[in-house]
Amino acid sequence: MKQKSISELEQQVMDIVWRQKECSVRAVYEKLQKTKPIAYTTVATLLQRLEAKGLVSKVEEGKANIYKPRLSKEAYSKSLATGFLDKFISSFGNLAISSFAESIEELPKEKREYFLKLLEHEADTK
After folding, report:
1. How far apart are CA 25 and CA 41, in angstroms?
2. CB 41 within 8 A of CB 47
3. Which of 48, 21, 17, 22 has the alpha carbon at shortest distance from 32?
4. Is there a contact between 101 and 116 (Cβ–Cβ < 8 Å)?
5. Does 8-69 carry CATH code 1.10.10.10?
6. How far apart are CA 47 and CA 72, in angstroms?
């Protein structure tokens, strides 16, 4: 499933929804208020946009709308990465692959080893 990109503020909202598992506009608003001034209506609009993008589902409970993630953070991240890589490779071909391989060498040792283990695991499962 190809995911639409989201803004930095939408990402912050999604992080709250993922952590809470389900929450109202008010709950998201109160969490965001701790770090930045934001209007309640802005939070409501952000959640509506995330629903339209298929990232959250909405259930009406009384007068409140309760939002739940439609997919895990891991599934979303995998979908984004796959879409990015597909587009990157189709646009730049072998140059993309060689640039990507070179950038792996610049990662900190632990992250590079983890990444290479993931690649090895993927290759073993195919």
Report:
1. 9
2. no
3. 17
4. no
5. yes
6. 16
Predicted confidence (pLDDT) per residue in 95-116, tens digit: 877 887 788 888 888 888 887 7
CA distance 47 to 49: 5
> How many other C-beta atoms are found inside a 10 Å radius of the C-beta of residue 55?
22
Residue with tokens 């990402």: 11
Strand order in the sheet with 56-61: 23-24, 64-69, 56-61
Q: pLDDT of 52-92, one tens digit each?
A: 999 999 999 888 899 999 999 988 888 888 888 788 888 88
